[in-house]
Design a protein that fits this description.
By secondary structure, this protein is α/β, with parallel strands linked by helices. It is built from eight helices and seven strands. The protein has one domain: Spore Coat Polysaccharide Biosynthesis Protein SpsA, Chain A (Alpha-Beta Complex), CATH 3.90.550. The chain is about 40% helix and about 15% strand.
Length: about 250
Amino acid sequence: MFKGQQVVVVMPAYNAAQTLRETHREVMDQGVVDLVILVDDASQDDTIAVARTLERVTVHRHPKNLGYGANQKTCYRLALDAGADIVVMVHPDYQYTPKLIPAMVSMIGNGLYPCVLGSRILGGYALQGGMPLWKYVANRCLTFAENLLLGAKLSEYHTGYRAFSSALLMQLPLDANSDDFVFDNQMLAQIIWFGHAIGEVSCPTTYTAKSSSINFRRSVVYGLGCLATALTFCAAKLNLVVSMRFPRAGR
């Protein structure tokens, strides 16, 4: 716990058997996590078997692969059902170090921000950590465009390392978002839409053969989805469209 607030880590998992145990160990070493909820999106490896051997882990399995966004929707629903006050999403592929959990939890638990991102761009070590050059360039270009369209000043929108207050999660219309990878981006746009500030901490990252990643084709689809999200945000703000993702009642 942190100042009497229950901290729940959620792990959207797919074929993470090789790195799950190491990630879990480091998560629990931080001393503030009450519960880990792992949602397995119909993995083809031993992710479920490994997860069931770990302490303080609740396991939920999708009977078929529903997608990364759908996995997160289940993660957050289960975390809220478990009484979480602060929810941290940690990918079980060990790409993001769990050592930042106490800092992210502190920023939320002390009421500074309702959402905190672990940014791979702050600190300038993304390329040294193994981020492919084409992904780095795409990240910077998309982030520039999204900051312009959404009226924000984030260092990046594409990190998978995030923490949220339960109050924020309950406010967001997450079911209106995609079940695919662009869910991440749509969620941040919703947070900005509802007028919340987003905090960031510098996050070193490690890309290895075990790290999860999407291929170039899916990355292009994701990038186009991010731009479409930002354009819809702008159109909704100007009352040009009606969007369930960006409801007027929330403004």
